[in-house]
Every structure is written in structure tokens, then in C-alpha cells.
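Q: Could you predict the 3D structure of protein-tyrosine-phosphatase?
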Amino acid sequence: MADRVSVLFVCLGNICRSPSAEGVFRHLAQEHGLLDRLHIDSCGTGSWHIGKSPDERATAAAARRGIDISDLRARQFRAEDLDQFDYVLVMDRSNLADVREVWHQNGGTEPRLFLDFGGSRLAEVPDPYYGGEDGFEHVLDLIHDASSGLLEEIRRRLA
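A: Sure. Here are the predicted C-alpha cells for protein-tyrosine-phosphatase:
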């Protein structure tokens, strides 16, 4: 039985998928009364957007679902994250390869594909950055599904 569980969501730039996952998961954890037993964060493998807010389209899509991610700021993945988080969940295979390379060198928590926790037939959360608004809605649907599965696993871990 764990007292507290930490979850890190990882994508490429930390402005679309991973902050959306952080926001959705935080929202679900709050609804289920588990937020005080979780540490939730997000980051990107790239450095282009460090310190920036999430993409306006991601923020708007989340807001339409009652989730506020506007206060989040992008940061870059660090090797230490593998020692500080119980779950390191990546959005796609490219992110997985990048984080796994660091994991092979340093150990710690083994990174996993986030959608492994959901019921989708997809293995990866598609990057909506170059698409339209529908892409952001689709990403939120996938994230919500996987977040529900993850929360159920964590609930058992905390029991």
C-alpha cells in the first residue's frame, strides 16, 4: 500500500498532449477524492517550449470540458524524473524511445505508453498540433479513457 503516488505525462513539446493529460487526470482524481494522494506533472522531451503555456487550442478544448490547464508551463524531461515518479507515461512511440534511452542509461521507473491504460485500439495519442480543433477533442477523448484506467490502477495501489 502506497501513501502517495506520482505520475508524469510526457509528450514532445509539453504544450498539447501531456498538459492535457495532466489536466484531465488531475480533474478525475479530484472528482474521486484522490488528488491529495497524488503528485501529477507533465513535461516534453524537447526544449522548444520551456516556460510557455499550453497551446491555445488545447486550453480551449480542455476548458469546454470544465478543465483549466491555463496555469501549466512547459518543462523539459530530466533523467531525475525517472527516480521521482512512480509512473512515467509517454504519448507515442517516439517519446517512448527518447525516454527509454535515458532509462537504459540511468534506471528508475520504466516509461510506458499512456494508452496502455485505456480501452482504445490505438497505441499512441496522436499529436494534434498541426491539425484542427477536432484533433484536440479526439486527444481529450483518448486521454480521458486512459486516465480512467490509470486512476483505477492507482486506486488499488493506494488501498
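Q: Anything worth pointing out?
A: Residues 56 and 70 are 9 Å apart (CA to CA).
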